[in-house]
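During the first year of the project, the team set up a workflow for recording each protein of interest as an amino acid sequence followed immediately by a discrete structure-token representation. This format lets reviewers and collaborators read both layers of information side by side without switching files. As required by the reporting guidelines, we include two representative entries from the current panel. The first entry is reproduced here exactly as it appears in our internal archive.
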Amino acid sequence: MAGKELPDALSSLDAELSACSGWLPNVDSLDFINDPVKSRPYQCKTLDELIWPNVGLHALKSTPKNHIFLEHESQLCDILHILESMDATEAREDMED
């Protein structure tokens, strides 16, 4: 039964990922905790850092116009946590990428 659960779980996560990436509002600007112009240039997070939403030098303030972006980031981090708890398979690793 475990073999059937994994594809179903991956299918559900894939649908959730598609929903997260399918739409984002057109926002003129975002409210950052630190001024991104005065901060050092943005650097992509490492794999270990990706699991923590909205942290680091370029974190967003918890304001209404940032809400949808913060919600999407949180959902993506939740999905990554779930994927990391599953047995390693090629399908899981492809989804993580």
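The second entry, processed by the same pipeline in the following quarter, appears below.
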Amino acid sequence: MKKFIAILLATVMVISFTACAKNGSGDATTAAEQTKRVAKADAQVQTDDPAMPTRVLENGTKINMHFGDTVIPGMLNDSETAQALVKKLPFTVHMSSYSHDFCGTMPEQLPYEDEQVHYGWLNGDIDYAIDAPDFTILHSDEENSEQYGYQVNIGVITCELAKIRELSGSFDVLIELAENEEQENEKMKVNIAIGGTHFSATLEDNAAAKEFYELVKNEGVTIDMSDYSGFEKVGSLGQTLSADDKQTTAKAGDIMLYQSNQIVLFYGSNTWSYTRLGKVDDISGLEKALGSGDVRAVFTVSKS
């Protein structure tokens, strides 16, 4: 009986340790399995300060990850996978803590290149686990990690490891561009929340869009929108903007100003006289989020 209990406990410990990381025993064969590529291959690393992430990433896209009141800063690299995630920001994912990481399952898969798939991680890595698919922040146990495969590195946190190691439990983590990153992009970006679904949009460089951006940045804008003709949602802004209406063919994702004071969000197409305000960056899931009835759209600007 004692022997059986010891085996059972050992099995539980292994399951707890693996959490989001998977070993290389799956059916799929990747480049990582063929060559045993590991996380430290070609990585720029530092070993002088164990309190900080091992990987050094000098250039990339700066992000903030909100775990309740705690903000974990990070940087995403220029890989195909990381840049696909950038296009979805701001993005919320439900993440839970495990022995060596925080992880959460993405609602849809991200693209990746086989040669970037590897085994293991470095402490502080932000990885995408291709077989789940999981978004993971790996903060511990890099020395034991090379038995776990299906990892694609997409970045690294840029704060002390203790800041995330001290967190526990589960969080709905908002991932967004850092404020200075948005300033560097020199484009007016807004977030749109429709129910529990979040989208980002890039505004036009015109007077109406700039006025709208200032409203959103200073106060936030909430608009109750109704369906019209099966291709758009429309609602009153409550004030007028500097319209410059032109005959325009709107397509899914377009944000238009109608009659100076109506905001129109398209999930279909229509040709009419509008002032173009902007466009949703990634329309995946937009039509589903808008649904068939009335919706409330909340426009905000990300702040770190």
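For the second entry, the following points were noted during internal review. Residues 255 and 265 are 5 Å apart (CA to CA). Residues 1-18, 24-34 have pLDDT under 50 and may be disordered. Both points are flagged for discussion at the upcoming steering committee meeting.
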